[in-house]
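Hey,
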Amino acid sequence: MAGEVRIGAPTLLALLADGPTVRGQGFRGLAAGIATAIRSGEVPGGSRLPTERALSAAAGISRGSVVAAYDVLREDGLV
């Protein structure tokens, strides 16, 4: 899609560095951090988030945690 912004895993993790830590917070902490970045405009609306595998590898967390976090974001209508 033209004009679509893709956010890479390292970029997203850098945005989360000032917020809740990804490790030790589980999927809820990850979801909260991404939600804050979306609501604040740090992640532009309509952006494509990193793939589950890319984010889990970059963050050093399980893919299941990323899946669960993305599910929370979908339920909240943020993605």
